[in-house]
Amino acid sequence: MRGWIAVLLAGVLAGCTGPATAGGGPSTAPADTGMPCATHDEGRPLPGDFVPVSAARCVLVDDGSRDSATWIREEQVARGGLDALVRALRLPSEPRQALPCPMPVPIGITLTDRHGTSVVPDPPRNFCGLPLSAVQDAIDALHWQVISRTRVPRT
Question: What is the pTM of this model?
Answer without folding.
Answer: 0.70
